[in-house]
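User: quick one
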Amino acid sequence: MNEILNTFLDTIKGLWLDSGFNALIADGGWKNLVMIGVALLCMYLAIAKQFEPLLLLPISFGMLLTNLPFAEMYHPELWTGEIDFGNVLHDGGLLDILYLGVKLQIYPPLIFLGIGCMTDFSPLIANPKSFLLGAAAQAGIFFTFVCAGLLGFNALEAASIAIIGGADGPTAIYVSSKLLTGEGAVSTGNIALAAYTYMALVPVIQPPLMRLFTTKKERAIKMEQLRVVSKTEKIIFPIAVTLIISLLVPSAAPLVGMLMFGNLLKESGVAARLVDTAQNALMNIITIFLGISVGATTQADKILNWSFLGVMGLGVAAFSLGTISGVLFGKLMCIATKGKVNPLIGSAGVSAVPMAARISQKVGAETDPTNFLLMHAMGPNVAGVIGSAVAAGVLLAVLG
Amino acid sequence: MINLFSAAAVMLTESVPEMDATFITAMTITGLSVVFAGLLILVVYLSLLGGVFKRIGTGKSKKNKEAAPKAVSKPAVSKSTAPAPAVSSTVSNEDEDEVAAVIAAVIAAMSAEDGKAYAVRSVKPVRRSGSGRSAWAQAGLSDLTAPFSIQ
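Assistant: Done. Structure below.
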């Protein structure tokens, strides 16, 4: 009887020692508890406040899973330094296997394929000067690179943080997953978390800056109606952009190429089934894989440190600097065209499609309710997507 | 300046460059220049392409204009004293026909009051000075952009 009782107690003790509950109250377990709290907060923001729910929800659930002790779903040690992909396949957990798509640069270009299928580049084709506003807003990336350098981040971390200013989640993940080795304090998860948080906060960050850097008279400028773009132009556009950008910055080819491939499928009008799959089923599957595996990299030691605060601070600086650069360049174009360009559309150059364009429309309509800037702002907005992909290509060409 | 150029050349060969002032400046200038250069090439290319397509479009519309007077017949205009003014065919769809009918009815009521005969020869939307859009286009735009407005 005694033996049975001892065996029973030993088994219970063993189960307790192997359980996550024990690990949570053991030394250092509080960090995991805090991270589970952060994951729950992110879930609340995604569900109740609808902050980029399609990505924040998978990211926050990935964060929850990766911080469960002994769950063994993600192994950061497999992704540190020189990666042995055979080892990942042999010893990796579910989230390690899914993270292969991030590390091998597969998911972000596929997301771009879906985005290309959903994007109408007509406002940009009708007013090609919008490209300049899309380029100007990328200044936020490079100014943030300077700030990150001054704060003591190394070149790879600085570039990964700076790309948050592109306001483009897949691009930020693409660059950071390629540059970060997993040895430093900054992870792809940190970058993605900061990027998507600030993209959700665009309606809060941008309007005050837009009002600060423009006069009421400038905000009231009404722009000429855009010309109608022919189908042939729409078909030539993705092919031309792919050729020009990929030949100039080959490292931008995976992002720009897939974006333009998706757009060509859409504009050709002959591949409706492929367009439907790319912009719905494929995009949704990749979004789930990307979100949950990126969330898995947000382990306690990567988030609960001063570097993460630095990333968040520089992230908001990147968004703000991009917005200011776009608006200031818009003012320059306003002067050059003798008042034909409303500087408010410059802020849409930071990507964050279509939210940034909607902000331009909203701030313009505040000054004059009969002013419609939405279509004009869509030009710099989609130009910003191409611009941030080019900026990513430059960073990868130099540091990758 | 020479330092910047040499830093730009070195940064393409070194694996992880040192984050000193020269590298940071060179990286910032290089990055911005390449982004602007790439998008500037696209601006020039698309402007040229747009110019070609505009010309093609203008040529087509000129041809259409030349052919148009032969095809369009004179609008029927009532000159009788009866209060039933006719409306020219500048309006085409059903909604616009309804608006034109209302305007015609108001004119007809006026003609009944003062005993004079009026003819409505055309109905054109008024262009507001400064807005660059007609009131009807403005209303249509409001309807179309309303779903995108942010609360």
